[in-house]
Every structure is written in C-alpha cells, then in structure tokens.
Amino acid sequence: MNLSTTAPPASTLLPADLAGQLKRAERRKRLFSISLTMPLLVFLVVIFLVPIAALLMRAVENPEVANTLGRTGAALAQWDRKTPPPDAAYAAVAQDLAAIQEQSDAGALARRLNSEVSGARSLVMNTYRALPFEQGLTTSQVRAHMLTIDPRWDDISYWQAIAKNSERWTPDYLLTAVDLQRNAQGEITRVPDDAAAFGRILLRTFQISAVVTLFALLLGYPLAYWLSTLTARQANMCMILVLVPFWTSILVRVAAWIVLLQSNGLVNRALMGIGLIDSPLALLFNRLGVIIAMVHILLPFMILPLYSVMKSVPPTYLRAAVSLGSSPLAAFFKVYVPQTYPGIGAGGLLVFILSIGYYVTPALLGGADDQMLSYYIAQYTNVNVNWGMACALGAVLLFTTLVLYAVYRRVVKSELSLG
Question: Are both 122 and 218 inside the same structural domain?
Fold first, then answer.
C-alpha cells in the first residue's frame, strides 16, 4: 500500500472566508499606518506647500487695478495706447474712484501705479479726495473737471499704466525680477542698463554663497576627519562643541561678530598686539565681515554630513593603500577623499542653499554692495509694501534652489551608476 500522497493546496485547508479576513486585516493595517502619517502630511501641506503656492500665485497676481478700476479697464480695452484716451475713460475712472469705500484700497492702487509711473500716487489720491463729482455731467465735462483737479490726467503715460495693469494676472513682477519688462504696447524688452539691478544682485548672491560654501568646506573637512578618527566618547564630546552655536540666536552671534571685528575690536587689537598690522583692518560693513560671520554660522551644516559619511569609511582602506606602496598623502586623496564625495555634495548643497537665503547677517555686517537677494525681498515687503515683487523675487530663489537640487541629484545618480 502506497502511503505517499500529494499534499492538497494550503488554500483548501483554510476556511473559505479566511482569505477575505486576511485581506481586511491588511487593509486595516494600511489605513492605520496612513492615519499615523496623516497629521504630518497635513502639517506639511498647511505649513509648507500652501505658503509656497500662495507665494507663486501672488507673484503673478495683479489685483490692485483690476479690483478698483474695472470700468476703466473695460473702457481702455480697445484703446491703442498711443493716442489720447477717449472721454469715456475719464468718466469710468471717476466712477471707479468714487466707488472705492476704503482709503487703504485707494492707497494700494496709488502705490501700484506709482511703481509704474512716478507721480501716479499723488495723482490718484488728489483725484480720490476730490470725488464725487456733480450728477449729470457729460463725459467731456468729467474730463474737463478732472484736468482742473490735476492737469497730469492729460499725460498719456498714466493711462498706459492703467491699461497695462488692468488684467488680474500679469508676468510683470517675474519679468522685473530678471531685469525684463513689458513696454506700453505689451512687448517684452530688457530694462535699461542703469535700471538693471536684479541680475547683478542675483549674481552677487551666488558669489557670496559659493565663497561661503568653499570656506566652510575647507574648514569643515579636516575637522570632520579629525572627529571621525576619535573614539565614540571623544567624538560625542567634540560634537557637542560643534553644535553649541545652534543654541544661540543668529542675531546674538552676529552682534558678537560686530564686537569682534570692529576697528577697536578683539581681532584688530590682537593683530596689532603681535605686530602683524600697524593700523586696524576694515573687517566690518564689507564683504569680508559677511563671509566670516556666515562661515561661522553655517560651518556645522557642513561638518555634520561630512562626519556621518566619514564614520562609514573603514580606516583599513588607508592602511591597505599605504601597505601597497602609496604615500600617505596620495592614499588620502586617491582612496579616502573619493569615498566622502556624498558628504561633500550634501554639505555643500545644504550650506549653499542656506546661504542664498540669508538676510540678517549681510544686512548687519555688510555694506550697500554686499546685500543679497533676501534683503530686497524684505525691503519690498516691509518698506515698499509691494507683495507682488517680493513674491516674484522669492520665486526666483525657490526656482534656483530646485535647479540646484536637481543638478545635485543628477550628479549623485551618475556617480552611483558609474560606481
């Protein structure tokens, strides 16, 4: 009698509904996992994604004229922007200005037009305070009355500014952020050389950030290497010293550098005391002071990625290279350094991205020619109250950061594929 039989499939040994119960259990586990991550997802959307979306939308939104001068925009829709505007446009702007309830809305309109044509602020506010006119005036009478209030209404440039900004969505802010503009006919042209500022400011921002990243790498690499050669207890103690600056406000550290770098500060007095210089060096309110303070503040962001990568590199590689006849210096640069490229890339990218967004340090330690793009974002936000321009400059910084990150990812991916 042959006792060997083929074992039935496992599924036939289970109850008919057990497979469904397993699927429901797996589904409950997935839903539970999603519910645990949902608060973090909501936090990221509310705190991170929504402000970025609002920034990008405000960079192309132009609500001041569209919200207040709707009739005027319609009256100027068919205007060729070369000949004097029709009388109906004068009547429309008088009706629109008279319909503005809050003086703050009239002020926002005046500031927006004044950014296009100098003098528009006083023109709009003078006319707004003189309204409303008498009832029953014809369009020609309204035109004559407005010219009596302010003869500048006969200047075609103010009407061109109104017609140009009558649409709610505009690329003007983004164009200005890259030294371009739309003329009165809507054509995109470069701004005059004496007005082209943001290109130089963006280049200056990249230059300062690149120099800060380079010096942070030159200082952070040997320090991270030394930390990686210590015992775990010693490395932890030294890492605490590296992280101590994180416990102090950036503003306090910048103020400390002002005390150190001033003409009668500790640095100049020490250099003069040992005889290296005869007179104080100019270390404050210039590019040098900005770079010194930024390197000090951002140095931990370079050390941490380097240290994490260096700890994973076995020290036996260097000893093996030396035992095979290589000099210690050649072994270090040909065997050890290539294995730390991921840390160099991560630290450099992190320091560079943080550098291009710096505002406080250049504002307090730098001169007029050392201010970075973030300074002008704050200027448009707090002083000029031009949120569109501030958001456009912020969008330029955001786009630059994304491009740098994409380049870093591509470089890392190519190195991994070659490895």
Answer: no
Q: Tell me, yes or no, if the pTM score tops 0.85.
A: no
212 plus 349 within the same structural domain: yes
What value does the mean pLDDT take over residues 21-47?
85
Closest CA to 317 of 340, 294, 296, 298: 340
Same domain, 144 and 288: no
Residue 105 φ then ψ, to 5°: -70, -40
Q: Which tens digits make up the pLDDT trace of 361-410?
A: 999 999 888 999 999 999 998 888 888 999 999 999 889 888 888 888 88
Mean pLDDT of 314-335: 86
CATH code of 339's domain: 1.10.3720.10
For residue range 57-98, what is the model confidence (pLDDT) as tens digits?
Answer: 999 999 999 999 999 999 998 898 889 999 999 999 999 999
Q: Looking at the structure, tell me whether residues 228 and 352 fall in a common domain.
A: yes
Residue where a domain stops, chosen among 13, 36, 60: 60
Asked if residue 300 and residue 254 are part of one domain, the reply reads yes
**Separation CA 27–CA 29 (nearest Å):** 5
Domain span at residue 77 reads 63-168
Average pLDDT over residues 284-299: 93
Would you say 213 and 355 are in contact if contact means Cβ atoms under 8 Å apart?
Answer: yes
Quick one: average pLDDT of 247-269?
A: 89
Query: Measured on CA atoms in the order 224, 229, 232, 233, is the torsion positive or negative?
Result: negative
Asked, for residue 403, whether it belongs to a domain, the answer is yes
